[in-house]
Amino acid sequence: MKPNHKGSATLFKNPVLERLTHTHIAIPISIFLVIAIGLLMYGFRYGFLDVLSAVGLFIAGWLLFSLVEYMAHRYIFHMEPTNEFKKNIQYTFHGNHHDYPKDKTRLAMPPIVSLFIASFFFFVFKLIFGTMVFGLVAGFLFGYALYLFVHYAVHAYAPPKNFLKQLWIHHSIHHYKDPERAYGVSSPLWDWILGTMPEQRKR
């Protein structure tokens, strides 16, 4: 199916499940930002963070998210549909977005999934990094919120006449010219590092 500027895919026959797959972009962005701020405040209040460590861990978490974003987009959302199960999973999570890139209500996971994702990363990072989790996950969730904002803006608005226009161009190449390149949405950093920059942009 060619990308369609209008319409929306039907993912579930059950109307309740189908409705739950649509969400306003402001809801998950708000959830991630509120949790990120709360983690920083908690870390400062109980002495787990000082200004220097908070800045360093926040940036590290943000950078880590950009890598997770790239890897998930490349290897999970664009996995080869070698069987019916993988085909259904791939289409439900991402394939429908390529068919209907202008569907604004499907540019983010539903709120309940957003809360699950935030909780999952907090507990995993807590096991691995201990009290550094308050700075790391704050940066990680900020990166997630930024990704959602950029992704929504790229699909919902005309490109701005400033340096941010490059993000519009980068993601448009992925959607309309070469879906096997330009996996980074909030940043082309990992496309540069891992060799998936579009050829014309390399030159």
UniProtKB/TrEMBL annotation:
Organism: Rufibacter latericius
Keyword presence, Lipid metabolism: yes
Protein name: Fatty acid hydroxylase
Compartments (UniProt record): Endoplasmic reticulum membrane
One of the GO biological process terms: fatty acid biosynthetic process
GO cellular component: membrane
A Gene Ontology molecular function term of the record: fatty acid 2-hydroxylase activity
Pfam families: FA_hydroxylase
Membrane topology annotation: Multi-pass membrane protein
Primary residence: endoplasmic reticulum
Keyword Oxidoreductase included in the entry's annotation: yes
Names of the cofactor(s): Zn(2+)
Transmembrane portions of the chain: 25-44, 51-72, 107-125, 132-154
Record-annotated Fatty acid hydroxylase domain positions: 58-196
Keyword terms, alphabetized: Endoplasmic reticulum, Fatty acid biosynthesis, Fatty acid metabolism, Lipid biosynthesis, Lipid metabolism, Membrane, Metal-binding, Oxidoreductase, Transmembrane, Transmembrane helix, Zinc
